[in-house]
Amino acid sequence: MEKDKALRRKQTRKRRSPYLCNPRASWPCKGRYTPKKTLQQPTSYSNNTALPRQDSGEGENWGAGKLTGHYVSAKGAEEKLLLADKKRRNGMDSQSGELIGLHDQQGDRHQQFQIDNTEATFTRGQVQELLKYTHDLIVIFRLTDQWCLYANESWCQALGYSEAEAKTLYLWELVRSAERAKVSRITEILLKGESIEEIELTFSTRSGDLVWAIGKILCQKENGQPYSGACIFRNITAEKLFQAKYEQIFDNTREGLFEASLAGDVKVVNQSMATIYGYDSPAEFIEKVKNVSKLYVRLEHWQECIADLELKGEILQEVKVIKHGGTAIWVSERLRLTRSAQGQATGVEGFVQDISNQRQAEATLEVAKEQLQAVLDAVPGTVSLISSNFRYLGVNRHLAATYNMPLEHFVGREVGFRQGVFGKFVRDFFTNDVEEASIEIDAELDGAFRSDMVIAKKWLDNEAAVFVGIDITERKRAEAALQAEFAEAAEYVRSLLPAPITEPVAIDSRFIPSQQLGGDGFDYYWLDDDHLAVYLLDVSGHGSRAALLSVSVLNLLRSRFLPNTNFYQPNEVLAALNQLIQMDRQRNMYFTIWYGVYNQKERQLVYASAGHPPALLLFGSSDNVQVKQLRTSGCLPIGMFPTAQYVNDSCEIEDTSTLYVFSDGIYEIRLPDGTVWDLNDFLQLLRDCHRTGKAFSLEPILDAVRSLKAKETFEDDVSLLEVNFS
User: Fold this and answer.
1) CATH class of residue range 2-236
2) What's the fold here for domain 253-354?
3) Quick count: other Cβ atoms within 10 Å of Cβ 378?
4) Contact status, residue 82 vs residue 240, Cβ threshold 8 Å
5) What is the pTM of this model?
6) What does the pLDDT look like over 127-136, one tens digit per residue?
7) Which DSSP symbol is given to 418?
């Protein structure tokens, strides 16, 4: 009895988890047991799966399945699962039952079960059914040809095969081609009766994806000879993919990254870290630097950082370091302690950025500050020096006086704190890839109107810019007064233009002056009961002189104050105007004109033009709109040459005819894409309006033209006459 107890204590010390017992082995399980042979202590695996080392004795050996720590057999019609405690617990004796201690992966949590002194019997099917619910990948293969004898459900799902399909495959077929030689070496080891404690393999799924797995491969014997290998793997695919993604980010980030021990020994660096310090590769960095303390100008700086990290956990600093070759640079460095699961400091991880250019710019600005101030103050306008992060580096005394603020009040402040429009201009200027820009800013300062022309130019490799403000308040006031005069002059010109008439010929007209006062003018009136005179002129240039010449011509024609001139003959009217008005007497100004006389009794139109766009005569039905251009060729504008000759031309007027006379401002329009609309485009627009029934009204035509423009206003005066002969 005492001998049995001693043997039992010896076995208890060797065993640390329950075993699956061979039913053909002579193991009594009635409260105490006497093993037929000594079993080696197994090692635990993930998720409570114990992985035993194989004994070298005779008899049948057993694989491992995930049965919450119990061992199961892979073959045999009927299996017996015996649960036995390693020692008595809490004073319980063998007659009342024993406790089982099941350990998880860390071994710090226990689940205890009390069982009777009986044998638990499992059939082969029950064992395989239990194996279905393990998350581990389990497959058993024959060593002679690597044919898969069994695969559990987790294995099949991971590789995309059914259980039936898995049993038709060979293990080497499932392993990635690059690792098939490894399978041969595994088989050689197993055929020697040895097991593999830990191995990592990569498998190919049915769809061609990769599955990474790590675990053990146990040698199973039959009749004392190695027969099969039992693979128990953990699927680490997600970990591998995450690690690959992390390594890609680690290697490709523009920020320098490193890990070091508390003593400063370099563990790992990325390519950006190596580049910042002048090395070609991370390997060269680690080989030549070895300890990060050597990077600092002050060798004791690393130990000071460790002391700060122990207090704060993380620090951010700008520090001077030495790169490869001995050059000193400035870096921004964020250091953080790494800790173990128990909270102990294990090392330091660092994030580094090269800020040498920024520090150099700041140093340059500081050195030049006093010199710049003297230059800035010498400029009569307002001057501000602003950095690329939108803060004032300095202003001159004129700007400070404008806002009644001391010079020091501006330095370091963000732009726009007094003038939002200027702040937006500064931000847009630094954002855009331009060297110079300007803007006019109108504002109210202390209740008074003020306008400045701000000119900006980048400086110091775009790290800063100079903004010069020129006071244009008086100029803007003068321009406003001039615009008011132009508006008054335009209103006077508009008052001289004729009102629409409806019979016996319907005439409508529109005059749209541009922002600058132009020289458009037109008129229509009856010379007698049967003859209607229609003309439109366009003086070159803009401004009051062009408008004055236009008004003078209107008065001459309206009063018929052209001696020895037959106003029924358009060519004579143009010749008389050319003799009276010459460029050398009109400050190099000239004008174009289209002049026509309509005989309503004969339904004939006689016309002549002097460098003016042709009038357009539209006639026919809406289904077949015809267009005729009315112009006389070879006729120069009025005022260019005193010897110029002008000729008449004529056409018959049908009942459905409509005549359009206009200045070039109606079709010389710059489109949003930069192209210019032309006469043919305008002609097609008139044709479309007649075809769709929008004729005999100028508004649809003008609305269509306005919709084409990139700007709200016309660049030139627009004059348009519509004469409906119906």
Assistant:
1) alpha beta
2) Beta-Lactamase (3.30.450)
3) 10
4) no
5) 0.43
6) 666 666 678 9
7) S
